[in-house]
Amino acid sequence: MGNQILIGTGRRGVKLKKILDKLLPFILSIAVFIAVATIVSLLITLITTGGHRLSWNLILNYPSSNPEEAGMRSAILGSIFTVGLSALICIPLSIATAIFLVEYSRGGRLASILSYNISNLAGVPSVVFGVVGLGFLAYGLGMGRTVITGAFTLAVLTLPLVTVTCVEALKTVPDDLRQGAYALGATTVQVVRRVVLPRALPMMLTGGILGISRALGEAAPILVVSGLLFIREDPVSLFSKFTVMPLQLYNWISRPQPAFVELSSAGIIILLLILLALNALAISLRQLLVRRMEQLWR
Amino acid sequence: MVLSARAEELKKSIQRRRTLDRVFHTIFLLATSVSTVTLVIIYLTLGLESFNFFSQVSIIEFLTSTKWTVLFADKHFGILPLLNATMLTSLIAIAVAAPLGVMIALYLSEYASATTRSIVKPLVETLAGIPTVVYGYFALYFLTPSLLKPLFTGVQSHNALAVGLMIGVLIIPIVASISDDAMKVVPADLRLAAYAMGARKSDVALRVVLPAALSGVSASIILAFSRATGETMIAVIAGGFRSVLSFNVGDSMETMTAFIAQVATGDAPHGTIEYQSLFAVGLFLLLITAVLNYIGIKVVKRWAIRY
Amino acid sequence: MEIESYNKLQKSYAELGKREMIEEPGEEVVRVENLRVAYGEKIAIDEINISIKRRYITAIIGPSGCGKSTLLRSINRMNDLVPGARVSGKVYFNGVDIYSRDVDPVFIRSRIGMVFQRPNPFPFSIFDNVAFGLRVNGFKLSKDELYAKVKDALVKAALWDEVKDRLDKHAYSLSGGQQQRLCIARALAVDPEVLLLDEPTVSLDPISTARIESLLRSIKDEYTIIIVTHNMLQAARVSDYTAVMMPDEKMVGRIIEFGDTREIFTNPRDKRTEDYISGRIG
What we know:
The complex is a heterotrimer. By secondary structure, chain A is mainly α. Chain A has two domains: 12-53; 59-297, MetI-like (MetI-like fold, Orthogonal Bundle). Chain A has twelve helices and no strands. By secondary structure, chain B is mainly α. Chain B has two domains: 2-55; 80-303, MetI-like (MetI-like fold, Orthogonal Bundle). Chain B has twelve helices and no strands. Chain B has helices at 2-54, 59-64, 80-111, 114-129, 132-151, 160-184, 188-196, 201-212, 214-229, 233-239, 256-265, 273-303. Chain B is flat, with a radius of gyration of 26 Å. By secondary structure, chain C is an alpha/beta fold. Chain C has twelve helices and ten strands. In chain C, helix 9 links the parallel strand 7 (194-198) and strand 8. Classes of the chains: A mainly alpha, B mainly alpha, C alpha/beta. Chains in contact: A-B, A-C, B-C. At the A-B interface, helix 1, helix 2, helix 4, helix 5 and helix 6 of A face helix 1, helix 3, helix 4, helix 5 and helix 8 of B.
């Protein structure tokens, strides 16, 4: 490269290059600007369209054909049921998987096949999870298009994501500590329980929360599994018919009347606030851990 | 004998702990196999119902017919309109995400200070965390009416361009973060060597770091494309349900994913050909993404320069 | 694993202090025969033969990368934890091959303790660090017995006077040298027969190093000690026997000389040993 500058170009070329050199960071940061501008204009659109429609009705009322009264109570409950249950399935599974991959199988052949399949699962489009949830769980196993089918579908959908963070969490535990415990005659279970998990658990839970917020925003797989965009009754059991927040929002978005568009904007604001709260929780949990570690090192 | 008693005690303790260890080993192994089992179930379920579908529809028709009218009385089963819509929107998405994502990655890895980085990186990653329903809303109520319609004539309210652009924004973080990772592992020596030869910072960024990270950058683009083909809600909300074979991106057109959503919310009883078509399209989509992901991983492995 | 081999393996497993009555000093406690350890394709050490005498200190010296730590780690089966590590040959502990199928590595590690290069106390209190081994090994101890064992181990590790008033303080509040002595105490609390030390003072200052060397001399009447070091003076100061390791042209570590420490340092038989000791290699 240096040669080219010396030989190939005359004074003008050098000058141009100098200008380009100065400009490049600004050119590159245009991309960052576009990304930020998208988020900002999205938020502005939401607030100007739906800000005035925010009310407790939106949370407490059932959906209705009258946009003045419509709310997403049943969808919020559906989301809580489905996503909550899916987290109860997904988080323990992810932790167990991560422990197997990192602590038990230490780079064995079986483990590398299994972890390869986890990354394959991560590449499956979310709508396909819905199709299989419908065909295998709802009809094949006869579980119906119910809360529990939705929960299992979301659980395996978020499994790779949460597993990866759990694996990362385990890898942050220094190997020194494991070795020290093994050298005293501890078994793997004891090493994990007494030395590894106390350190890795907060970060694992952070990963779990990220999985939950991903599941909360997922619409496509639930759309296929449940088939309902709104419902006028609360889910009461694992086998209730249900819908979730993003689908209720889709229903409002797809209605032509402006009042429903406003309603959907307000609903989206609520959904985003919930996701923001979850992320804040995840971050503060991580910071709690960092602070605790600092205390330990004092 | 004291000796034997102590030996007995330790032996029992070890046996007990060993058993516990084995039990947990089995439990954890079972948990780990859930992903693999799920993957098998996914392929079996899709394969089985697709088999039912293809026992009534010829594969030739599926792959070559230009009409997809499964939900009408006069049924045609040509995937091409759906495939075309999926590919068009995904290509538009990549045309947005590849340059922007790579630019962001270059900026983060070569120019941003640690503080800027710690602000910009999560901000960019937020783009992937916004629910896709929200992007669909934004495409339908902001992008199309406020930007596309004034700029281009003949843009319909539902159109492939808005879908592609919006998916593009959604997948920027995929390109940016994988490329950024690839650029970060380019050794500092290489940069120093270029500086020592009189290169400017922009030369280092564009002619040293970018080529050195090329395998990671290409992989990120392939994986982002794969993610784009599977995106559903944006296509459903902003693209509409008109299955037409058109190359006019201002037209409304139905992607494979949008068709799946359409059937699932409509009336397609279990066992009918409409129901089975869901699985055939699902399998087709899955195979496309699986091949893309496979190529993406291969590219990383094959081209990766080991430092 | 049969109870006889347990008895045999833990010949000295009586109460602390009564040990001298049961076992003979100077008898062979560990014997390594034709040991080879490979990581994947790469052979790290080969044709290792060595005999360790009870209640003496044996030093393993050699330039870095010659496989000293690998040898040490194969004596308590820590190499089992390294992915791709393959061990062939025999390692006898009290006459039982520890790599035979019916021997549990967990048992071996509770009888052969280990201290690492860098101090690695657990992120618990000082007391819990020392009690860790006793707890995981399932000893049925009353609170007082546990306290007595912890105290005993800390006394032996020459740490008791410094920490007796703050046993519940976090282990990371200790200095590096204190942390390393805590790790020694942690290993001694389980009452092992053999203590393996992998360059235990490499990250410590000279004063902390001297403390650890003197504590090793003070406990050698009760424990068999194998210490890996690349500090020759340390080997000369603390050990009774010395093994010299050297990588061959393929970078496979081998023992080139083994014998009485004084003999090795004053009258080496191997030219390479002489070069190494006089500072021409390493």
